[in-house]
Amino acid sequence: MHPREFPSDHGEAIRVLSSTTSTVDLEEIRRDCGYSAILDFHLPVGLSVEDLQTLNSTVRDMLPLDRGHTLFRQGESFGALYVVRAGSLKTFVEGSEGDLQILGFHLPGDIMGIGGLTNEHYPCSAQALERSSIFELRYNQLQEVSASVPALHHQLLRVISGALVTEQRHSVMMGKQQAQRRLAFFIRRMADRYARLSRDPQVLALPMSRGDIANYLGLALETVSRLFTKMESDGLLAVNRKSVDILRRDLLDEMCGGEIDI
Known about the structure:
The protein has 2 domains: 5-163, Jelly Rolls (Sandwich), CATH 2.60.120; 177-256, Orthogonal Bundle (Arc Repressor Mutant, subunit A), CATH 1.10.10. Helix content is 41%, strand content 21%. The protein is built from 10 helices and 13 strands. The protein is globular and about 55 Å long. 32% of the residues are buried.
């Protein structure tokens, strides 16, 4: 079987390792990813060793994806789900007039490409925010495995429903919350995600730009910059470019008002 190729933003290619490559150890993936919604199947559902070996056959390890390079593009035919092994990516949609809306930021363990299940095409694009590595879950084979392993099918549904809930929560936040609370929710959510990855939840190295954050939160860049400055002057944060230290988690939680996270 020949390696599969994905075009990058610079006309190069991101090559997927061929099926002759040694299989990927799922336990190794869990260690590398930390918290992983898609690859933690055996913890909540108790898959057998045979089931895990079957699932392992659907996974391919991709070569590194450089910063700014694209994993999949809006409108491309759907063929696989992807899990971030290391690094980070953003997903976004482009309008007919070239306007861009960021849908989310993806850290190790996150699954991407779920939207392609609806009409067999990816409804958005995914681009690396930094040098990243990805696992590919070939969907046709994943379907075959889940048909014979009910526990895996159940876990897939759980992951998909979880992604939908996250999207709905973000929509609620965008529609109801004031600018300062939107940013507070975003920072708290990133801290919680860091904690699940066994990283320090009080020291955030944000891989996305301020412009990306503003776009995601539906705010102007100037507003986000002003709010970071205010939160720093209020003693909540210490900000140094893309490094954000949370000094007062209690005040951050209070600013969020105890409402749902995004």
